[in-house]
Amino acid sequence: MKMSYLTGWIKLLSALLFLAGCTAESPTESAITDPHSYSHPQEVRVTHLDLDVVVDFNNEILQGTALLTIEKVQRNARQLYLDVKDMDIHSVLISSDGAEEKVAKFTLGEEDSILGQPLIIDLNSNTRFVSISYSTHPGAEALQFLSEDLTHDKEAKFLLTQSQAINARTWVPIQDSPGIRFTYNATVKVPDGMMAVMSASNVQEVMPGGVYTFEMNQPIPAYLLALAAGRFVFRAVGPRTGIYAEPGVIDDAAWEFEEMEKMMRIAEGLYGTYKWERYDLIVLPPSFPFGGMENPRITFATPTVITGDRSLVALVAHELAHSWSGNLVTNATWNDFWLNEGFTVYFENRIMEELYSPAYARMLAQISYEDLNDEVESFWPNDSLDTRLAIDLTGRNPDDGVTSIAYDKGFFFLKLLEEKVGRAAFDKFINQYFEENAFQTMTTAQFVHYLRENLLNQFPGAEEEIQLSEWIYGTGIPENIPHHPSEKFKAVEDQVAAWIAGISPVKLTTEGWTAHEWQHFIRSLPDSMSVAQMSVLDSVFAFSANRNPEVQCIWYVKSVRNRYAAANPEIKSFLIKVGRRKFLEPIYKELVKTEEGKKFALEVYKEARSHYHPIAVHTMDVILGYQNHEPS
Ligand code: BES
Ligand code: ZN
């Protein structure tokens, strides 16, 4: 297709901007501004947080104080800028020695619907500590308070937080920017008999009186602050690994994730010592809006990956990999998100290759490839600027950048590098990258500079051959994407072809297929199918009643598209139970395409909405044009 006049200019402009970037010396930290934070880190930085909060399940709020240790970067700075959203600030005290406190003047700036408000605190020349007494609002975006019946055991309430990308500011007044790191201590009071865990040192049993204390001595950015409270137990799966889950889930969870210690050894063998001491995982109720979240020392995970066959444990490899890519070397702003996720998908793939097999890793890579193609297809136009790795999210919600571009285009770019320079050189480079940049942040421009100085300089001509600038600053999918079709999936496609040619589904060769092959089978079916065809496949393979959420999700989208209404009851119960945005989004999006589908979607949503995390509610309200903002 001929490039339009406008896109031609945009491409030229990006190339020029890129060249301008090349001539600069190493891009310095002081040049970094985060469009999603009000903080002024070039003036004052928070270096430590001492959090003391009570979890109030009755009012669905947190209440307490955040005592911040600050460091003046600019000696004459007299104001501290923090990020807050949906929060009541009761009072602010400042101190130079931590003992003598003085009431400080503070103001709240104008509210932005995405960013919240700046909390601006007046400082003295020698202020070192700032103590903020506050309470959160019900409905704060990071917090989900669950009633008993939304948990597995239905015996106690549950609280979970999700801070990434910019929700930490809804439960802690903080400099909420991935480029700013601090250590933290916390004391959290929960109802007696409950357990609480944070992205920090954790105990393994219930504490009398419900008082828990935490310590995180490695500096982390605010998006990695996390808390969960409820009725759960701990079980070790290895010397430094274990699972927290509700008593009724712990056996299945411990079996599903038994390979965690092995994954850690593989990860360390690839990219260096694990720097966070323990690696545990907590299984949350199904309303958790993500599959997994890499909270340091304790991954938060959806229960939907417990399938009884370990088919979705790549998710653990993914969150574990973030202990290096993301948690050690962190995207400086959400515009650099691909550095977190692209590296992590690459690392995840390497762990799975070693844990299972290269053929297994190739299946995962092909799923990535198809996700990426579908994602690019869904953009309008297909060369939208949002299909660039170096995305610009200024003025928008960083959620807009959570697409297959960051994950899968990022992954394939790194894979291309690996193939160009060879594994040995690439692994050496990545080891050095994690080592030299540990506990620091990285912008896309800094990464490109680092790559040139530490890898590409040893391979003359490689930069041009891989088309570095096109990959990072260009749109769409470059034609040299290193896609190697999976042989296992080829066998699946042969069976689809046989079925299309008229062979009965019962005669297809599907023995030994794993969930991935079934996923690929459904994905390879013709776009448009008759209700009769859907029905035959369903009666032979029982897709509607499948218990693997990845299989369910694509089958349900296909059912909606082909008006296969027999799947509706299963779709409804799936949508009511599971709050994982990755699954809700495609199903609701497909439903709203027709009048009839939209009616069904709204009917289900009315029931399901109160089960979802505020983050998922936010996205689904937009998809469904849902106006009713009553508290649910
Ligand atoms: N860090 C992400 C989740 C995230 C990204 C939350 C951006 C909020 C904003 C996490 O590591 C992730 O990528 N989770 C995936 C699973 C993974 C196997 C691809 C998910 O939840 O689907
Ligand atoms: Zn991730």
Walkthrough of the structure:
The protein has 632 residues and is of the alpha+beta class. 37% of the residues lie in helices and 19% in strands. It has a seven-stranded mixed β-sheet with strand order 5-4-8-2-1-11-13, with no helix packed on it. The chain has a five-stranded mixed β-sheet with strand order 15-16-17-19-18. A hairpin with a 5-residue loop joins strand 4 and strand 5 (101-103). Residues 1-26 have low confidence and may be disordered. Ligand BES is lined by residues 164-165, 290-294, 315, 318-319, 322, 341, 402, 582.
Task: Please give the structural blueprint.
Blueprint: H1 5-23, E1 44-56, E2 61-72, E3 79-84, E4 87-95, E5 101-103, E6 106-108, E7 117-122, E8 129-136, E9 143-146, E10 158-161, E11 181-189, E12 195-198, E13 211-221, E14 227-230, E15 233-236, E16 241-245, H2 250-256, H3 260-271, E17 279-283, E18 292-293, E19 298-301, H4 314-321, E20 329-331, H5 337-355, H6 358-378, H7 404-421, H8 423-436, E21 440-442, H9 444-454, H10 462-466, H11 468-473, H12 487-500, H13 515-524, H14 531-541, H15 549-561, H16 568-577, H17 581-591, H18 595-608, H19 614-624
Parallel strand pairs: 1-11, 16-17, 17-19, 20-21
Antiparallel strand pairs: 1-2, 2-8, 3-7, 4-5, 4-8, 6-7, 9-10, 10-14, 11-13, 12-14, 15-16, 18-19
Helix pairs in contact: 3-4, 3-5, 4-5, 5-6, 5-7, 6-7, 7-8, 12-13, 13-15, 15-16, 15-17, 16-18, 17-19
The protein binds ligand BES and zinc ion.
